[in-house]
């Protein structure tokens, strides 16, 4: 029987892999770099992410904007000064002459609102709007936390997939070598060798795709946290996934009523709209201000009542006090129409609050079911992995004694490593899913990230 020579595609594919992606993707090179934990990368992202920094800057701006409305309730002081000079031509016979005259004037005035309901309602609105900005900042922080965690575990899942593909390649390589030996001694057919070679070539192409996916996921995480060539710490061996804190999804929904940023933002929006209605009614009310001014004037020379020049300085001081009331009588139906407009906007704000509650409730229940399903899937895949390992061992033994063929062993290997990859992805999906569940009901915080961070390798 003539021996079958296998084409050397293994070396060609490996060369293409290194030329296309570079040897930097080999995990052996990452050992020299310092691995980062999830919390470390999150802190880096907080200082780098443009979306979060923009939300933070907007909150700071709204803090100052809220204080601007306070100025309408406090005294308003102003100082006015003037300095005038003129040449006075005096021509009494027989000796006409010129004289420089002028004046120095300083006036200090103050206005204190005594009763202005519109300004006071505007001030209360500004405090509510500042609360809206705070809830928006919390939402931005929660979103960043989820985005970092998603990118972190996406990279770990991609790395695990590459490791699984490489382990599968080694197993297929061993099976290929065994098929060649058995063919050479006449205990197997050429079909076994060709099937193993085809499966090996397919696995090599999968390795190229998996390595490229690692590179893409690493770039995504790098850009998010602002660190070049990140190295996330993997889960520790034997890490147990945390169970759901509450088994009843309705408890998660009820908790969202007082914590979710969207609901808080909509509730404050309703209160702002109600204050706007109050302001529109206040358009019928008067405003009362207290005004006072103090004026000092120094006249440098001048002309007396008889029309002759009088030398010397004259000083004058004036102090005024007044209580001014402004009562609107008719504004061309503006105030009436403004009232009707704000009432309609209040109704819209109430509808927005109802929509926010319904949206949060749906998102919370959906996230809860996703995590519950993920935990059940992890248990099922753990059992499937054990069963697949047993099946592979049985097929290898059957192949050695001649009751199984090579394709049976290859299929069992493929099933085992596919199960391993799916199990790793399912575990990461549960961890991220629990964070998304807490984001869905508005309770997500950095403490939740610390709990997951404790599951990583030290």
Descriptive account of the structure:
By secondary structure, the chain is of the alpha+beta class. It has 2 domains: 9-74 and 116-285 and 328-453, Outer membrane efflux proteins (OEP) (Up-down Bundle), CATH 1.20.1600; 75-115 and 286-327, Outer membrane efflux proteins (OEP) (Single Sheet), CATH 2.20.200. The chain is 64% helix and 15% strand. The chain is built from 10 helices and 4 strands, in the order H-H-H-E-E-H-H-H-H-E-E-H-H-H. It has a 4-stranded antiparallel β-sheet with strand order 1-2-3-4, with no helix packed on it. Helix 7 (261-282) runs antiparallel to helix 8 (334-401). The longest helix has 69 residues, at 117-185. The protein is elongated, with a radius of gyration of 40 Å. The protein starts with 8 loop residues before the first helix and ends in a 5-residue tail after the last helix.
Give descriptors for this structure.
458 residues; Outer membrane efflux proteins (OEP); alpha+beta; disordered N terminus; 64% helix; single chain; 4-stranded antiparallel sheet; 10 helices; 2 domains
Give a quick precis of the structure.
By secondary structure, the protein is of the alpha+beta class.
CATH class of the largest domain: Mainly Alpha
Which structural class do the helices and strands define?
A: alpha+beta
Q: Helical amount among residues, as a percent range?
A: 55-70%
Give Rg in angstroms.
40 Å
- Whole-Å distance between the termini? 58 Å
Based on DSSP secondary structure assignment, what is the total number of beta strands?
4
Helices and strands, in N-to-C order?
Answer: HHHEEHHHHEEHHH
Helical run tally: 10
Task: Tell me the number of structural domains.
Answer: 2
Strand content: 15-25%
The order of strands across the largest sheet is: 1-2-3-4
CATH-defined superfamily of the largest domain: Outer membrane efflux proteins (OEP)
């Amino acid at each position: 029987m003539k021996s079958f020579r296998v084409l050397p595609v293994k070396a060609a594919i490996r060369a293409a892999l290194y030329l296309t992606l570079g040897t930097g993707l080999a995990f052996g090179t990452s050992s020299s770099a310092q691995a980062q934990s999830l919390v470390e990368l999150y802190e880096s992202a907080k200082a780098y992410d443009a979306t979060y920094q923009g939300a933070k800057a907007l909150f700071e701006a709204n803090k100052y904007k809220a204080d601007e409305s306070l100025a309408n309730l406090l005294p308003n002081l102003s100082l006015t000064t003037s300095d005038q000079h003129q040449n006075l031509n005096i021509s009494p016979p027989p000796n006409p002459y010129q004289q420089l005259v002028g004046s120095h004037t300083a006036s200090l005035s103050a206005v204190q609102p005594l009763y202005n309901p519109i300004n006071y309602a505007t001030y209360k609105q500004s405090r509510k709007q500042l609360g809206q900005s705070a809830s928006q900042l919390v939402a931005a922080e929660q979103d960043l936390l989820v985005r970092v965690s998603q990118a972190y575990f996406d990279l770990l899942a991609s790395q695990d997939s590459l490791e699984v593909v490489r382990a599968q390649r080694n197993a297929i390589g061993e099976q290929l070598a065994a098929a060649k030996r058995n063919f050479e001694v006449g205990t197997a057919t050429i079909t076994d060798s060709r099937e193993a070679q085809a499966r090996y070539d397919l696995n090599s192409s999968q390795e190229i795709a998996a390595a490229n996916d690692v590179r893409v996921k690493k770039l995504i995480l790098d850009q998010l946290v602002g660190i070049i060539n990140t190295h996330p710490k993997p889960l520790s061996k034997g890490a147990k996934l945390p169970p759901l804190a509450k088994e009843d999804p309705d408890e998660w929904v009820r908790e969202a009523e007082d914590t979710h940023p969207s609901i808080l933002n909509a509730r404050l929006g309703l209160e702002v709209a109600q204050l706007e209605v109050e302001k529109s009614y206040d358009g019928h009310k008067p405003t009362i201000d207290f005004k006072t001014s103090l004026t000092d004037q120094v006249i440098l020379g001048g002309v007396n009542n008889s029309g002759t020049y009088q030398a010397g300085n004259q000083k004058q001081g004036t102090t005024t006090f007044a209580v001014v009331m402004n009562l609107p009588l008719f504004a061309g139906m503006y105030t009436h129409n403004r009232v009707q407009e704000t009432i309609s906007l209040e109704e819209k704000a109430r509808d927005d609050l109802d929509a926010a509650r319904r949206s949060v409730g749906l998102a919370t229940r959906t996230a809860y079911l996703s995590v519950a399903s993920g935990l059940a899937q992890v248990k099922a895949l753990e059992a499937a992995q054990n069963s697949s390992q047993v099946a592979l061992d049985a097929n290898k033994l059957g192949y050695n004694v001649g009751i199984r063929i090579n394709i049976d062993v290859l299929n069992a290997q493929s099933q085992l490593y596919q199960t391993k990859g799916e199990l790793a992805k399912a575990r990461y999906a549960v961890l991220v899913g629990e964070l998304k569940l807490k984001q869905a009901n508005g309770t997500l915080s950095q403490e939740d990230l610390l709990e997951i961070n404790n599951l990583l390798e030290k």
